[in-house]
From TrEMBL, chain A:
InterPro entries listed in its UniProt record: Fumarylacetoacetase (IPR005959), Fumarylacetoacetase-like_C (IPR011234), Fumarylacetoacetase_C_sf (IPR036663), Fumarylacetoacetase_N (IPR015377), Fumarylacetoacetase_N_sf (IPR036462)
Cofactors: Mg(2+); Ca(2+)
Name of the protein described by the UniProt record: Fumarylacetoacetase
Active-site residue list: H133
Boundaries of every Fumarylacetoacetase-like C-terminal domain copy: 125-393
Pathway(s) of this molecule: Amino-acid degradation; L-phenylalanine degradation; acetoacetate and fumarate from L-phenylalanine: step 6/6
Residues at which Ca(2+) binds: D126, E199, E201
Fumarylacetoacetase N-terminal domain boundaries: 15-118
UniProtKB/TrEMBL annotation, chain B:
Domain (Fumarylacetoacetase N-terminal) ranges: 15-118
Protein's organism: Cyprinus carpio (Common carp)
Cofactors named for this entry: Mg(2+); Ca(2+)
Catalytic activity reported: 4-fumarylacetoacetate + H2O = acetoacetate + fumarate + H(+)
Protein name per UniProt: Fumarylacetoacetase
Amino acids binding Ca(2+): D126, E199, E201
Amino acid sequence: MSFVKVEEKSDFSYHNLPYGIFSTPDNPRHRIGVAIGDQILDLSVIKHLFNGPALGHHQDVFEQPTLNAFMALGYDVWREARKCLQMLLAADESTLRDDVSLRSRAFVQQSSAMMHLPAEIGDYTDFYSSRDHATNVGIMFRGKENALMPNWLRLPVGYHGRASSVVVSRTPIRRPRGQMRPDAAQPPIFGPSKQLDIELEMAFFVGKGNKLGEPIPVEKAHEHIFGMVLMNDWSARDIQAWEYVPLGPFLGKNFGTTISPWVVPMEALMPFVEPNPLQDPAPLPYLHHDEPYMFNINLFVTVKGEGMREAATICKSNFKYMYWSMKQQLAHHTVNGCNVRPGDLLASGTISGPDPESFGSMLELSWRGSKTIDLGEGETRTFLKDGDEVTLYGYCEGSGYRVGFGLCEGKILPALLSDL
Amino acid sequence: MSFVKVEEKSDFSYHNLPYGVFSTPDNSRHRIGVAIGDQILDLSVIKHLFNGPALGPHQDVFEQPTLNAFMALGYDAWREARKCLQMLLAANESTLRDDVNLRSRAFVQQSSAVMHLPAEIGDYTDFYSSRDHATNVGIMFRGKENALMPNWLRLPVGYHGRASSVVVSGAPIRRPRGQMRPDAAQPPIFGPSKQLDIELEMAFFVGKGNKLGEPIPVEKAHEHIFGMVLMNDWSARDIQAWEYVPLGPFLGKNFGTTISPWVVPMEALMPFVEPNPVQVNWVDSKYTFLPPCTLPSLFRFWQRCVLSFLKIILLSFQDPVPLPYLRHDDPYTFNINLFVAVKGEGMREAATICKSNFKYMYWSMKQQLAHHTVNGCNVRPGDLLASGTISGPDPESFGSLLELSWRGSKTIDLGSGETRTFLKDGDEVTLTGYCEGRGYRVGFGLCEGKILPAL
């Protein structure tokens, strides 16, 4: 496959080639790289090798400190870039393989690099597109009869999130303080959240945008979808419950949202596409697309408490459980003329499947605190404790190789103590 | 006052000096200007004149195509810049007045300039802080008993808006299409919104930001508030009604939001500050309404003392008083007259459909900013935080067609034989606003938009 050695269980096989932004101790400049095996190929060093009709005139996009300019060039350019990378990394291609000086400057050990946010995120939207998740939450709070709201099966419900607090994997997350009303008979109180939760999600980056007033039709939506990352939409359930009526979640979410650093291009995921779920009732025509756009991506969540020797897996799920596809989400988001821009982030919503072990939040895994989640070593949880390290990871399983996302990690710091 | 002539009813008196970003036909570069009279003072031309301790090493912020870098410098830099501008524009100051060459390059006619968004907006948040508006909407949809949600009087309710579709005054607004369910007994339908509405709001720009995890305490919040603009939060009520449960408004709002181009610095508004509303649910709010700022500062000082004393007495019996992280005594409510005019296709004159005032807000901007960051959320220079629809107690002060027509149950008269419940294609909506000083105004220019037909 490639002249770069790749372990069989590596996320970064020759079939992946995800993009990310990194820097190194000797060179703090943020630059674009592609992950392969345990290496990073520094695109700023080899930009002169991208000579195709689309990229030849825009090689400088690989000099940028973010992926936005490259994303903005559009679908044909991404395909051309991928072809070029596959060629340059091929076992039988000498251009990079045999150029000792270039090769030594172009490759960096992943373990010595620091990863950064891959793009400047102009807007971040969070959807709510897992039927099992929405049903679970509905049952917990409204009972079985009224579990799903009437609009849930008709449109991909979503809300605007906070762009400024999207952080890259390994950024510590401080337990938020806020206003809560645990006892409806008492006045609200202020203090650290006692119901800090995770949300296993995936998110896609918009590549090419659209003009204000000009919707993206669902059949063309894939041309605007660049690639995917893992996301942990940390949530403070007590803060959220008191604030969210009627305008939606706000401070219960915007204290921090973590994404994995490597953006896996859609082309790398297409071999793992599956048919779309049956949608009943059938969506309105603007949301209807036949071509499959559901992906089999294995997803895992582990938690390691302070003092534990090993992390415990608390969730095994899959992106294929989504009800609404990314094409439908993007078409819906722009159908009223709303403009998306390169680098915008659109997240799936908590991913839960039908089995309890596939529930993507502690709210569901503990069923609103009514049972405990076992971490082994004598540790249990209903919600997160200070010091907990949460790791999300995921991959598509190919024949003898993987296309994976790296790690989406965060550690909980104790809430601030100062008087407020 | 200034050597630049200013009409008495101009928004851009010597006491204002708002910042904006403009370009001209002969020079398409976006640059920073200050409005005065019917002129714009191009700060990129005179940046070398800002020589104070805060700005001297950072003159290049006035070379930028947006205000973000200047905003990021912080409170002391803004004060210094304002002093410098007041000095340079003073009638008796010759530096700019008498330098014929510099003066001719530095001033541009407002009428020949194109205005642009004043800042790059990283995040836009919309609050819901007018008690009358929230109550009206509550009564219309839930009845008098359950008008205000239990959390409304406890925290400044807000939601994240869409930054990409915030546009500057003058940008046309296309009627959105979307999914709606006008008849609950029928499946939802798709089509152009039939309930296109306006929302009279004001918004402030964050100047200096905070780090993720480090809240802005309410007593320091004003150091982070740069200045204000008018905002029209166009809304599609039918799209909104069907989508918004349980995660809030989305496509019913994000097809377009218009702001006025001139950012009025908080220092220009401080002369028009009023005591904060008493935050309780049973005290008659008319206690807090005081005449506008024609009073000498000493009298105002005593007014504040008396009111603070009253509040201390009342506070011990009041419920709900906000939690400590939201409490601030210094006044931060502003007397800003606000107007909405609508001109339909073919009408000769616009009709004023709303006369309101920013002083009707229940939650202050300091409370909104402190609340927004109390959980550690980070705001950045250029972030936009809007007030929510501004409605007062009188029907003529309601800031949306939804309220003015009371959910379509009565029509709004535009004169010339025209009436409205919601907007029609071709309608031009103009928001204006100003503080009334003695013989001068501090105003916001225009916040305009025209409705184009749906695709």
